[in-house]
Amino acid sequence: MLFKTKIVTPYGIVWEGEAEYISFKSVEGEIGFLPERAPAVMKLVVDVVEIRAAGVVHTFAVHGGYILQERDMTTIITDAAERPEEINVERARQRLKRAEELLEISDSRRERARNQAKLQRHMLRIKLGSERWQ
């Protein structure tokens, strides 16, 4: 049994298809969805989302957002979702270094939170982008 799935960003639909299984990390922890699961809405953290469809695992770096599970449809709404092959690891390393520098000199709680979020996104990019070469 399969269920419709799509990943939506402000720039459009990143992926759409029929999924067998979805695994992700929410603020409650790591979770997986199978077809005909009870409806749910969960907040996503910056982490990897894996979608198994037609025997192939599609991997995405998801930058937070929400996942909405209905009986036969799952929608992931996020600011950004990147495939490993779209990630420039060297650029992510440079931006990670800059985010670390900015975090050290952040004055306000708001700046620290913003720079901490940048740090998490760049670390995820490096992790996922580096894995494709192993």
Automatic annotation (TrEMBL):
InterPro entries xref list: ATP_synth_F1_dsu/esu, ATP_synth_F1_dsu/esu_N, ATP_synth_F1_esu_C, ATPsynth_dsu/esu_N
Q: Which GO cellular component does the record give, naming just one? A: plasma membrane
- The residues forming a coiled coil are 89-116
The name on file for this protein is ATP synthase epsilon chain
Q: How does it assemble?
A: F-type ATPases have 2 components, CF(1) - the catalytic core - and CF(0) - the membrane proton channel. CF(1) has five subunits: alpha(3), beta(3), gamma(1), delta(1), epsilon(1). CF(0) has three main subunits: a, b and c.
Membrane topology per the record? Peripheral membrane protein
Record's superkingdom? Bacteria
Q: Where is the ATP synthase F1 complex delta/epsilon subunit N-terminal domain?
A: 3-81
Family the entry assigns: Belongs to the ATPase epsilon chain family.
Q: What compartments host this protein?
A: Cell membrane; Endomembrane system
Signal peptide (UniProt feature, chain positions): none
Give the protein's function.
Produces ATP from ADP in the presence of a proton gradient across the membrane.
> Start and end of every ATP synthase epsilon subunit C-terminal domain?
85-127
What is any Pfam family matched here? ATP-synt_DE
Provide the GO MF annotations for this entry: ATP binding; proton-transporting ATP synthase activity, rotational mechanism
